[in-house]
Write a structure and sequence with these properties.
two-stranded antiparallel sheet, 3-methyladenine DNA Glycosylase II, Chain A, domain 3, elongated, 5 helices, about 5% strand, about 40% helix, RnfB/RsxB_Proteobac, mainly alpha, Alpha-Beta Plaits, translocase, single chain
Length: about 190
């Protein structure tokens, strides 16, 4: 049988291990919830069109990759600069510029339907995440250029292959007027 000092030592050790287990369990649960909360907060900022232009199968997957540090915050094409800034702010990082140095001068990409080839099957209309395609069944469909995000989902589902992605020529109507995002290299703003 154990003597009193040995029994006291065993009981104190068991109590210490129990308390350590409870603390570690609490920390693991709170860290998991914080990770989920971060991904959820990031997903709320994303436009939710599930276009996969970021390289992930949808906005939730992109948000989870952002939360775990496995993706850059500037990959959401439909969200543009506004969403990129919000994502960077939530993550507490600066906006990466490796892909976006000349983005302000890059023309937008939109879908174009060749009406002479379109049979009006409506598959593109059902697959467009932003409802940028209009038309009646068995009549050629048209793209609403102002709404098109250039995701290419309509290309993938078109049985007639009458849709292509084209770059818009920059005009005053479709130019990105966020001029504060231009950085002039070699110039100094301080005097």
């Amino acid at each position: 049988m154990l003597s009193t000092p040995e029994l006291h030592f065993v009981l104190c050790g068991a109590l210490a291990l129990f308390i350590l287990g409870m603390v570690l369990s609490y920390l693991a649960r709170s860290q998991q919830q914080n990770g989920e909360d971060m991904a959820t907060r990031l997903e709320k900022v994303l436009p939710g069109v599930q276009c996969a232009q970021c390289g992930f199968p949808g906005c939730r997957a992109y948000a989870e990759a952002l939360a775990s540090g496995n993706a850059a915050c500037n990959k959401c094409t439909p969200g543009g600069a506004v969403v990129t800034e919000q994502l960077a702010q939530i993550l507490g990082i600066s906006i990466p510029t490796e892909d976006n140095d000349d983005a302000i001068f890059t023309p937008r990409t939109v879908a174009l339907i060749h009406e002479s080839l379109c049979t009006g099957c409506g598959k593109c209309t059902r697959h467009c995440p932003v409802d940028a395609i209009c038309g009646a069944i068995r009549d050629p469909h048209q793209i609403v250029v102002e709404d098109c995000i250039g995701c290419g989902d309509c290309l993938k589902c078109c049985p007639e292959q009458c849709i292509e992605l084209v770059r818009l020529e920059p005009t005053t109507a479709n130019f990105n007027w966020e001029l504060q995002s231009i950085r002039f290299q070699g110039s100094s703003t301080s005097k």
